[in-house]
Design a protein that fits this description.
Layout: H1 8-14, E1 17-20, H2 22-33, H3 38-41, H4 47-58, E2 63-66, H5 68-82, H6 86-102, E3 104-105, H7 110-113, H8 123-135, E4 138-141, H9 144-152, E5 157-159, H10 160-165
Parallel strand pairs: 1-2, 1-4, 2-3, 4-5
Helix pairs in contact: 2-4, 2-5, 5-8
Amino acid sequence: MTRILKNIYDAFLAADRIVIDTGPLLIHATGAFRNDKLKGICLCDDPVEEFNFLNRLFASGKRFCITPYILSELLYKVRSEFKLKEEGVEEFFRSYGTFLRKIGEIQIGKEKIIYDTGIKFGLADVSLLKAYEETGAMILSSDEPFCRFCEWRNIEFIKYKTFFFNRLFV
């Protein structure tokens, strides 16, 4: 299933479906929900530019997906980062739920996750590995150790940081 591509942009264009890791999703969710907190989440000195990049990326017409494990990890990080109580969680989903409903979902059963050799990375990351194995969905991640693991396992991925900083997608 591995394709030989010249650069990250080629990989992005060639992907039929892209499954999003929590990192890029958290940046996007923060910009949409609490843009005053973007500076602490983003990778660059211009958080608005980074959020706009993700907006353009997600509006590009590509099929983006998440797994339920990614959604759970996103909720955990949003609750922690913004110190949300129950009403804050409801507000987050009222605000960001529209976007989440628009992207696809790849279901991965727990029995496929708990015995995977990548389990050391956690349930969300293993769900990305399984999404790739079962559907061929390319992974978009900002997690450096996880990206190295994907490279070692010959799994197609796009390292978000490189993609963003090279401005290969306008």
